[in-house]
Hints:
heterodimer; A: alpha/beta; TIM Barrel; 3 domains; eight-stranded parallel sheet; five-stranded mixed sheet; 39 helices; elongated; B: mainly alpha; two-stranded antiparallel ribbon; 4 strands; 62% helix; 4% strand; globular; transmembrane helix (chain A); EC 3.2.1.78 (chain A)
Amino acid sequence: MKISFKKEGLNIELPNFAKVAPQLEKSAGIILIGTLILLSLLAFAYFYSKDLILSYNDSRAHMDMARLIIDNLKPGFAQLGGVWLPLPHLLMLPLVWNDWMWQTGLAGSVFSMFFYVVSGIYVSKLLAFVVKDKFSVVICTLLFALNVNLLYMQSTPMTELTLLSFSIAATYYLLRWVQSDKLTDFLLLSLAVLLATLVRYDGWMLFLLTALSIFIIRLRKVLISLKEKPFFVKVRIALTNSSLWGILLMYGLLAGLGIALWVLWNWAIFKDPLFFLTGPYSAKAQQAVISGAGKLFTEGNILLSVSAYWWAMADNVGLFVFLSALIGFLIAIKEDKFNDTFVVLLTLLAPIFFHISSLYGGNSVLVLPELKINVTEGLKGTLFNARYGLMILPAVSVFTAYLIKKGNFIRWLVLVLILFSYLMMAKEAYVIDLIDGQMGSSSLRVGDVSTWLKENAPGKGLILTALSYNNALAFSTGFDLKRFIHEGTGKYWQSALENPQEYSQWIVMANGDVGDPVYNALIKNNHSNFLKYYDLSQKFDFLNVYKRKEVPKNFVYIHDEQFKVDDANLRFIGVNSYDLIYRSTGEIASTLSSAKASGFEVVRLWVFGEGDFNVLQPKPGEYNEALLDNLDYILATAGKLNMNVILTLSNYWEAYGGVRQYLKWVDLPNDKPSDLDRFFTDSRVRTIYKNYVNAIVLRKNTLTEINYRDDPTIMTWELMNEPRSSSLSTANVVNDWFSEMTSHIKSLDKYHIVTTGIEGHFDNLSINPYTTGPTINDVSNNVSIDVLSGHLYLDYFDPSVSANNFSIVNLWTAFAKNAGMPFFIEEVGFSKKPDDNGGIDRYTLYENLLESARKNNLQGLILWNWALKTDDSFGISPLDPGDAELIQLFKSYSERLKNDV
Amino acid sequence: MSNRSNIIKINVLLMVTFIITTVVLGIIVKGVAGNLSANDVYNLQARTQPFELSPERGRFAIVQSLFEYRRLDFPKEVARYVIPDLAYRDGKFVTLFPPGVSFISSPLYYLGKQFNYSQYFSFLTVSIFAIINVFLIFKIVALLTSNKYAGILAGLIFLFSTTALPYAITLYQHHFTTFFILLSLFLFLKKKSITSLLLSYFVFALSFIVEYHAALFILPVIVVITLKFIDIKVGKKIIVKLSYSIFVAFLAFVVGIIPNLAFSKYVYGNMFQLAGTVRGVKNVQVLEPDIEAARSNSEQAVDSNKSLSNFFQMSNVANGFQVLIASSERGFVFYAPVMLLSIFVIFVFSKSSDDNKKTIRLVFVVQLLILILYLMWGDPWGGWAFGPRYLIPLFSCNSILLGVVLNKYGKNLLMLALFSVLFIYGLAVNTAGALTTNALAPSKEVESASLPKVQYMFNFQMISDNHSSSFVYNNLLNQYFDLKTFFFLIISVVSVLYLINLILLYRSEYEN
């Protein structure tokens, strides 16, 4: 460059590059490839440095899909699955075994980058073939290569670039073949389409359109050769032309081989050739949740489907570029007049046909802000799968070239518009495909979940989670893939969905009904029964993490339908000693030690008393410290004797205050049974009850210095003695109260079992004559309840199921087993007077009952009532010589029950 | 008729047109009597009052601060009425607007103050520029087509049949932006001269102080004017000859940009700080009385999200298109449908001279730029407004094309009828807006949708209800007739003026 100052102005002399253009043209190929490689590397470096490579959940899923073939609880090629097409994952296989390549996403990005370069080369070749004008070729190749959405996608392990390269190559070779008729071009075309059909299903549409193009072009050729003949004759001859059908058949066999192989694979692995179309992980099935919520707006709506894909294209390539291409397309129609070149170029529009038909058919979802619709909630639901529009970029490049070559003014105007569009898009916040991956529905931000898991779930414990979350979690936690139980782990997966506690230490699942199979299995279909074994450890935005309960040593816990302590089953005979807390410490010690000596392992007692000055709770919030000291003493003593206690926290009946006293405190009527229902619903009463529960559960034993909630002596907290609703129709008020109070206690004490105190009535009046609720059926449906219980007195039940053979025990245990809950009888008593028992002496009754209990795997029974005094009704006492034989019977069965387990 | 008498006739017509235009604008300018205090302005924010919306308050505030308080930042009593277009910087309440509109209206404010009409006179500044814009359109069309009737008609269409009218009588920037664009186009059409070049660069620089993107709209014109002074010869080497005038023109640019830089330096502490990018103060509480609270509220005075590029997004285009083109609340199809007729310029273009083709292309590019920019604008509604106010500069360019179309189809009765129907429709709609209120909320802001779907129906309703914003009507003419009569009177006068020009246009070919 030379600058000189002349009289008329400043002169700048520049070299004329047009002179060196021919030399540059010779090296055009190298310059093009060099530029594409440089752009590819720069883009990757930029997005990698910003940690954006794996933003898409699908990008992690693709990496996992390949990795799972070699690193899995159940490795093998079957991990390729039956929905996503296999080629991208097979390509990644040689690299993905390396932890670093896998974790960084590079094992997939390398291929995207490679195919980006290939795509750029083929776009350039195609442009050179079609428009000839060199300026247009250069500009439109750059239009393709510099698209920031493309540069982002080529940096990720997604499959778009792989498909694009095969698609453009297919169009290029089709064009060449149409003009040259060479077999090599035909074979290369077939190969490109075959590979495209194994990358994404869009490739299948390409297969159809290329076949259609071949048909039209060949048909036209035959028709032209028959120009002398009448039209219908020509058509008839053409349609029976063997060459036409021969070529189509050959094309179908070669290019369609991938599709055929995929169908066969689905058949072989999943026993259904159309598994990819109809299986539980097919696109249609995945959209079912959105469709079910009435938010798959494009389904059956052609205008919205077109509009959705229109904006996807515009947002990906830039609106003004897109409009330029549209004008270019009209020019192409005018200039090419539907000639063979134009027909071939129409194959570049395959993505339009594919996506619009998919959207309309409900197989796909595509959401963009311009549509002003939301498939979920918040910003996330306004953007989903925006990248689908990127597939139109080759067509946009080619048709824009038609416009650019039109003339100087338009050329520069379009150039400015392209430059402007691309500058506007060259900002992270405007790269629509990046935003979708980061914030749209295509993203899955599990960073907080994985951070939490890394801190709280190290080690080897297995994690049950669906593949859709597993992909993201596996990456961001860096855990060994063998720790995850997901759809690809065969029997582990099936078993874990039925009995998660057998395998999984952790469960990560959706916190709502969004189609998560783990959620469906454990919460929707199994009524959250898994919560017996798991605690909700942490809630996140859309995921919950559950941890298998780890009960401290000596605590009684529930596993399946059994009580357990330190992995051993616990079946027991216990005694009620309802008023133990109101006894002196001496009596307490003797009562407990004599019970222990008689083989009883569990004592049930009443930890309530309301309204009177000498009971546990004289007034709301006022507690009798002396009696609480007694409770401390009971627990300390029972603990020493290695016994468990069941603490009943309130009474439905009037004894010791009960429900009526609670109602009196808040000035509610308490005469009729229906009045008593108010106990369970009145917020003031519920608050008094909760406060009382707080005082007991959170108490620290003054003798042992152990917090009650940490004391394994306590076997269960029982909400109430014999709670009832006034009628079957109001059972829900009590059942709801159970839920609320159980949750409340569990929020204070995460280890102890909570029982309800129900008497175990069935809703079958032929078994029991009671018309009050809640029945055992109601309670078994309450997901917050862990245990079922019954009270057995002969007048409670029809003689046919009680005294005669105690088949009631069988009914109870069978029912509980079916409900997946343990069952125990927490009160059973027979009168000492045979006349009260239908003439049967109580020894015989107990013997029959105990035998029935043993046979029916009853978890426990608690006798009514053990005291250091004699009576002539139901009591059992070590001081009553008449009970000695009976006590021996209990002792022997206590041993037998222990040994039976 | 002889040429001389023809010229006299045209000049008389031109004079009559401008007199009537001046009178019409003069009697519909929004206002109240008196030299207003800050408190008065604060209390004049109701619908139909001269400060019903924040843009006019924000711009008037600078003038008021300048003359009444001798400062460019705002005293607290002024700041109070500037909210929400108020910023706080370095202990001072400052404007969020470039100050050009305020500066230009200052002389008339001062003059009006002498007659106790400071507000009315300052608003009148905009009307004067609107009339100049009509004149510039007339001149440009006349230069392009040699048809002065077409030029007058194009000017009338711009002012009376688009939203240019309601914004010609209140303190907004649009007519100033339009003026700079039209002036630069006019300079482009003038014979190549150093004066034109210097003036165009000066205008280019000056436009920044009115509205930053005005400069962007002018840029293509500046580029082509500059190209007139660059000679490129391609041979073995490429020789680029740059006239020294370009460097002088650059100096003119520097001189023109100084007021803007000086203002930014004084007010924001940084001469390159753009007004709209300063963090706004939205809460009146910060004005009371603890100034330190305001300071802490504005610790980060520059809002990182308010960079100029963030205002414009491609993703806004769909919405922008719907709002500015087709919506019944702001779409130009509803407010200035006569603009659609510029499509016929396509048929004129191919038969135009090369020079005219260049001009038409240039006008097209400027329009495209304006359209693209505002389609990408986050708030295409222009806040509470009457019609598509952002498109006023585009309408001025489009009116030039309409002048070209009218020249071509001046004897086509069907076309003239079409023009007339659409002109009178636009005249009625925009006169209704001008006489009543611009305070129409975007429908997205009004949940209860108290406004009719076609928002200008609300203005017609206000005409019926006799609610006028016109200073002259409210203070004088309302004694003689109601608003509806006044409305029809204005429409009639302007329509007659238009039709006379149209008839003369129709007959002009035969006369010539």
